[in-house]
Design a protein that fits this description.
By secondary structure, this protein is an alpha+beta fold. It has eight helices and 18 strands. It has an eight-stranded antiparallel sheet with strand order 3-4-8-9-12-15-16-17, covered by helices on one side. The longest helix has 20 residues, at 65-84. 47% of the residues are buried.
C-alpha cells in the first residue's frame, strides 16, 4: 500500500469559534475528523510524500505539546528519508533495491517493517504485494502522463508481472556474541543481531508505500506512550491514529468519504465514533480518486498482482480499523483487492474490523464496528 493519493487538509479556524476539523485524502481515501471545540492547536507538516497533521492534548503542564509534535514529525521524516523511501538511492530500502546480487545488511527497523509487510502479503495470498512497483510504473496511473493515457498492452503487462513476486524476498536475522575478558572472573558477553534481506530475482523493486504510512503511526504511538498524554490524533496521508480522548473528554469522530462523490471532499457515507480512551488506527483504500480514463472507462491505481490490471473486486472502498497502524494500512489495500467475502478470514486473523462499500453503493460493516458506526 505506491499507492496513495494527494492528502487534502482543511482546518476551520478556532478563532472564529467553530469546530476544528481535518479532511484527509490520501493513499487511502479520505476521512474527516472532529477535533472538538476545546482542542489544542493542530500542526501541519509534509513528509512521506503526503500531508501530516498532529494534535496532542495533555493535562500535565510540564508536557511541551509543540516539542512532542516536533519529535513525532522528525521521527517520521527520518523514517522516510533514511529507511523506507524506495525513491531515494541513499535510504536503506533504496540500497536494497540497487543491490541486485547477494544480500544487503539492513537495520532492525527496516527488518521489522519488511517482516510485517511480507506476512500480510503471504496471509492475503499476494493481494498485497510490496513488489508491485514495476507494474505500477508501467500503468503510471499515479504519475503525470504526457498526452492521453493509454492502458498498457497485455504483452507488456505479462512481461512486467515477472518482476512482481513478494516470495522472491528473503529475510535473515543472525545472532552473534561479543565477549570481553577485562574481568577474567566475570567475563562479559553481549548478544547482537545482524539483519539481512535478499531479492532472489534481478529487477525486483520493494515499495513500502502500502504499509509505511501505517508504520509511521506505530512510531508516533510509541512516542505518545512514553509521554503519557491524555489524547492525540495523528494523520499520515489517509491513515489515522486515534489516541485517547479530546481535550474536553469527549470521543473522536472519524468520517469515511463517499466514493460515489469523489469531487466532494466533505461528502461522507458515515462516521466512526470511538469511545473516550480508545487507541486505534484507521486506514481506507479506494480507487475513486486516483484514476485515469480511456475510451470512457476508468482505470484506478490499486493493481491486482494476479491479473496485472486494476483490481476488479466489486468494491469502491474499504476502511480497516485495528490496533496496529502498519496492519490497518496494508490490510485496507489487501481487502480492496480481495473483495468482501475473501477479506473476512484475513480480517479475523489480524483481529481487525472493516467497513466495505461495494459498486452498488451498499455499505457492509463488520460486527465489531456496528456499535460505533453512524451511517449518514
Amino acid at each position: 500500500m505506491n499507492k496513495k493519493i494527494v492528502t487534502l487538509l482543511k482546518m476551520i479556524l478556532l478563532s472564529l469559534g467553530l469546530i476544528a476539523a481535518v479532511s484527509v485524502a490520501g493513499k487511502n481515501k479520505g476521512h474527516k475528523v472532529d477535533f472538538g471545540e476545546e482542542a489544542g492547536a493542530t500542526s501541519h507538516y509534509f513528509a512521506m510524500g503526503t500531508s501530516i497533521s498532529l494534535s496532542v492534548y495533555s493535562e500535565d503542564k510540564s508536557v511541551d505539546e509543540n516539542s512532542l509534535k516536533e519529535k513525532i514529525v522528525e521521527d517520521i521524516k527520518r523514517l522516510d528519508q533514511q529507511v523506507l523511501s524506495w525513491r531515494s538511492t541513499t535510504s536503506e530500502l533504496g540500497e536494497v533495491n540497487n543491490n541486485t546480487v547477494g544480500s544487503t545488511q539492513i537495520s532492525e527497523e527496516l527488518y521489522v517493517v519488511l517482516k510485517q509487510s511480507l506476512q500480510i502479503c503471504k496471509d492475503s495470498e499476494g493481494a498485497l504485494d510490496i513488489t508491485i512497483r514495476p507494474l505500477a510504473a508501467l500503468w503510471n496511473i499515479e504519475g503525470d502522463n504526457q498526452g492521453e493515457f493509454v492502458p498498457p498492452a497485455k504483452e507488456e503487462i505479462d512481461e512486467v508481472l515477472k518482476l512482481v513476486d513478494y516470495e522472491a524476498i528473503t529475510l535473515l536475522s543472525e545472532r552473534y556474541s561479543t565477549s570481553s575478558a577485562l574481568d577474567e572472573a566475570k567475563p562479559q558477553s553481549n548478544e547482537n543481531t545482524n539483519y539481512y534481506v535478499t531479492c532472489a530475482s534481478e529487477g525486483i523493486i520493494v515499495d513500502l508505500g502500502a504499509t509505511g504510512k501505517g508504520y509511521a503511526l506505530d512510531k508516533a504511538k510509541a512516542v505518545l506512550d512514553d509521554a503519557k498524554v491524555e489524547g492525540a490524533l495523528v494523520t499520515v496521508g489517509g491513515s489515522i491514529l486515534v489516541y485517547g480522548e479530546k481535550a474536553d473528554g469527549s470521543s473522536f469522530k472519524v468520517g469515511v468519504r463517499d466514493p460515489l462523490k469523489p469531487n466532494d471532499t466533505n461528502a461522507m457515507i458515515g462516521y466512526l465514533e470511538f469511545a473516550p480512551g480508545t487507541v486505534t488506527c484507521v486506514s481506507t483504500s479506494g480507487g475513486y480518486e486516483k484514476f485515469k480514463t480511456y475510451e470512457g472507462k476508468d482505470y484506478h491505481h490499486i493493481l491486482d498482482s494476479k491479473t496485472g490490471y486494476p483490481s476488479d473486486s466489486g468494491l469502491l472502498s474499504v476502511t480497516v480499523v485495528c490496533d496496529n497502524g502498519l496492519a490497518s494500512d496494508g490490510l485496507s489495500t489487501a481487502c480492496f483487492v480481495l473483495g468482501y467475502e475473501r477479506s473476512l478470514p484475513l480480517l479475523e486473523k489480524y483481529d481487525a474490523q472493516a467497513i466495505f462499500m461495494d459498486s452498488n453503493g451498499d455499505i457492509i460493516v463488520t460486527d465489531g464496528l456496528k456499535d460505533c458506526w453512524v451511517e449518514q
